[in-house]
Amino acid sequence: MKEYTVAILGATGAVGTQMIQCLEEQEFPVGRLKLLASARSAGKTMTFRGEELVIEEATPEAFAGCDIVLGAADDAVAKRLLPAAVEAGAVVVDNSHAFRMDPEVPLVIPEINASDVAWHHGIIANPNCATIIALVPTWPLHQLAGVRRMIVSTYQAASGAGAPGMVELEQQIEALGRGEAIPEPRAFAAQLVSNLIPQIGGFDDEGYTSEEMKLQNEGRKIMHLPELAVCCTCVRVPVLRSHSESVTLEFERPISVEEARAALAAAPGVRLVDDRTAESAHDRYPMPIDTSDQDLIWVGRVRRDISNPDTASGITFWCCGDQIRKGAATNAVQIAKLLTE
After folding, report:
1. What are the tens digits of pLDDT across the range 215-259?
2. This prediction's pTM
């Protein structure tokens, strides 16, 4: 089997660290792994397959000899450095928002549009985490009945803001437990512990945030549905890891709850957890505590949308998935594996 020289840009962050673990778990054919980060991290070490690797400073020259680059840096760093990786001959799978809506860049969820990888021009974009978690279970239902409208509320964990967001929530929880003053928020707009924040990203003229518009814009591109109608509300919740979403779908054709459950149970990347009679809550429906540190999107609470005038054409469900894994690192490594096949 051919082995590849792989680089991770932003290797020391929450997503970059998870990418290293995913490469190991998925037995990716890595011949050499280069870990790239800021100058302040250069010289430190991280472990891959039991070997200590020295972190290098991320510069345009650092991509020399790379076959595949996994991007886990912010938009500004991605725009500045990743074109140099392409010029050096690498194919980039980027997790930032920098290239997602570029018409020359495929935006890929392997369970949905793996074939789009074929028309890349050096960069393939990884979708937003909330987009991935919503669309993986939406896709098999779309194949049955043709989705035309989505109403979604997200309950997004602190991990969506990376390592700083997780640290901030942990510090606030500890302060609350000790009866001390809650530290001033830095990663979020307000205190997150004992609170919900109904804003992720900046507002547009209609009052929607940038995070809310990603589901519509990215969903249209990924599912090849340019007219898909989406209304989304994104909320940050005091959960450390794993996003949850309430999804209501309106279809072009009738679909029964039984058909929906059967399609979800058989869908790649999905685990159906939907037993109202189960003794344990863990078996009745998905929860973030159960879906963290694994790669499937768990789906439950599947039911008719009784607000739809045509109740046969509406389905509502609840889903949870690990934002750092399937919502970011795992999806990127799955895309990279498509490049090797």
Report:
1. 999 999 999 999 999 999 999 999 999 999 999 999 999 999 999
2. 0.96
Cβ(106)–Cβ(120) under 8 Å?
A: yes
3-class secondary-structure state, position 203: strand
Give catalytic status of residue 129 as yes or no: yes
Among 129, 232, 319, 320, the one annotated catalytic: 129
Q: Compute the distance between CA of residue 35 and CA of residue 256 in angstroms, rounded to an integer.
A: 49
Exposure letters 267-282 (e unless 16+ CB within 10 A, then b) = bebbbbbbeeeeeeee
Report the alpha-carbon distance of residue 242 to residue 129 in Å, rounded: 10
Q: Which entry of 97, 120, 142, 243 is annotated as an active-site residue?
A: 243
Please return the burial class of 145, using the count of CB atoms within 10 Å of its CB with bins 0-12, 13-18 and 19+. Answer: buried
Over residues 178-218, the pLDDT tens digits come to: 999 999 999 999 999 999 999 999 999 999 999 999 999 99
**94 is written with which tokens?**
């980027």
